[in-house]
């Protein structure tokens, strides 16, 4: 893209001067389907926003922020279809004799737009058809366009293949793990490996957890956030914006990974028969959690804390009495939900600031507590209307949505700087874990029930799980 016009900054994009010149706007009021207040765009009709995406010989739109939000109202391939159709119409690409001089000026713009689309947006096979159509329309004007557009087509094909492979890989991993999720209904046999036999260094395990987090995050595209929260559009009756099934498998797989890590931590703590060994495992995971915090891996941090706070673990009072808990209480304080996770959000902002000024990938790592991120985006989407009473798109809402999703996309693209340890990664993915009943049974076997309720549950679990009377 060397020599091409630069995409507008977010600041200029959302002011009248940042919009396409064929959208006549004023500093205040409504013009061309756009409404401005104090020089900032606050709402617009969908047609006007789509018009903003149309490049010309002397204008180029910003792609990365605005299309994600438009997906709430229109399918991605239909959006690209309308953009290409307007390009064809405005640049008169259907004329029997093309104005080659004008096309040579316009060609780089449409090429850049389609390139950014394949990078920023969800890729599907419908996009290939639009690319081929544009290739055949502008390629006759300049042989260089033919080569560049064909390269772009190859890039898109590779991306589709990569996405398909990634989703297939996650499905296979999930299937392998699910076979072992309920493997242990009672205490595992003595030959069962434990985490400390695989990795005894907290910093190393924190690094490998970061590997897993970033690898799984890499498969989640911005379109999955849109798909997760898509609703029926009141202006279209009962028709949803997407008739196809929601595609959020990568997002859902990541949430399942969090749950698995919680149960893995609890299982590792409840497995040892001796109190001293259980205390040692707890202290190990406290150190792992602290290293995750220092790295900026807040998702693994919260999973570890959640695992240690599960009832079968927290009830092991004799075990906890042998643990130096000061560091654990500090970590709990950092992830305390009080004040809408005020302490965590402060730490997250600090990590995000560090990432912006970082000189190495190690300092760029920001892995947010994912469930809370999803919750924030959900309530932002639910708490504000998509459309204003006049039928316009509520642009201020979608600007904030784009900001939050955009931050996440930046964080997930960081390349993990730590050397990968296949043995540890394999253990994290495949080590059998207790079910909830299995955890309680192991907990009661380790430290006897303290009241009648616990005794009744212990008896019931031994009867149903171990087949004892």
TrEMBL record:
An annotated GO BP: Ras protein signal transduction
GO cellular component assignments: plasma membrane
Annotated Pfam families: RasGEF
SUPFAM superfamilies assigned: Ras GEF
PROSITE patterns: RASGEF, RASGEF_CAT
CDD domains: RasGEF
Source domain of life: Eukaryota
Protein name: Ras-GEF domain-containing family member 1C
Organism: Acanthisitta chloris
């Amino acid at each position: 893209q060397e020599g091409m016009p630069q995409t507008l900054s977010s600041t200029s994009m959302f002011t009248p001067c940042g919009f396409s010149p064929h959208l006549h706007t004023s500093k205040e009021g409504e013009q061309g389907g756009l409404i401005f207040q104090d020089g900032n765009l606050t709402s617009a009709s969908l047609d006007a926003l789509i018009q903003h995406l149309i490049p010309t010989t002397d204008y180029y739109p910003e792609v990365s922020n605005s299309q994600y939000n438009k997906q709430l109202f229109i399918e991605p391939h239909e959006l690209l279809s309308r953009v290409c159709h307007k390009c064809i119409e405005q640049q008169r690409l259907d004329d029997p004799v093309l104005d080659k001089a004008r096309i040579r000026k316009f060609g780089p713009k449409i090429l850049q737009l389609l390139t950014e689309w394949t990078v920023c947006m969800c890729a599907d096979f419908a996009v290939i058809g639009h690319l081929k159509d544009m290739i055949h329309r502008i390629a006759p004007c300049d042989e260089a366009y033919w080569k560049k557009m064909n390269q772009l087509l190859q890039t898109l094909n590779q991306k589709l293949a990569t996405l398909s492979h990634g989703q297939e890989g996650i499905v296979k991993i999930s299937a392998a793990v699910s076979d072992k999720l309920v493997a242990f209904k009672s205490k595992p046999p003595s030959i069962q490996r434990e985490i400390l036999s695989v990795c005894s260094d907290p910093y190393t395990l924190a690094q490998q957890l970061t590997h897993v987090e970033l690898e799984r995050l890499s498969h989640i595209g911005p379109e999955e956030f849109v798909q997760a929260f898509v609703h029926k559009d009141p202006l279209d009756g009962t028709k949803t914006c997407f008739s196809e099934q929601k595609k959020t498998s990568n997002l859902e797989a990541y949430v399942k990974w969090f749950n698995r890590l919680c149960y893995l931590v609890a299982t590792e703590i409840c497995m040892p028969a001796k109190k001293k060994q259980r205390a040692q495992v707890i202290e190990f995971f406290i150190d792992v959690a602290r290293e995750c915090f220092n790295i900026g891996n807040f998702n693994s941090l919260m999973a570890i804390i959640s695992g240690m706070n599960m009832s079968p673990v927290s009830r092991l009072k004799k075990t906890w009495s042998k643990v130096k808990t000061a560091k654990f209480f500090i970590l709990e304080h950092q992830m305390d939900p009080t004040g809408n996770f005020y302490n965590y959000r402060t730490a997250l902002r600090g990590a995000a600031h560090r990432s912006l000024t970082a000189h190495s990938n190690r300092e760029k790592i920001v892995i947010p507590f994912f469930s809370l991120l999803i919750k924030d985006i959900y309530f932002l989407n639910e708490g504000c209307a998509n459309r204003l009473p006049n039928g316009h798109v509520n642009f201020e809402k979608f600007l904030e949505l784009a900001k939050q999703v955009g931050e996440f996309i930046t964080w997930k693209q960081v390349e993990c700087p730590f050397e990968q340890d296949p043995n540890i990664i394999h253990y994290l993915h495949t080590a059998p874990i207790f079910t909830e009943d299995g955890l309680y049974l192991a907990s009661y076997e380790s430290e006897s029930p303290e009241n009648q309720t616990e005794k009744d549950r212990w008896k019931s679990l031994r009867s149903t799980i171990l087949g004892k009377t």
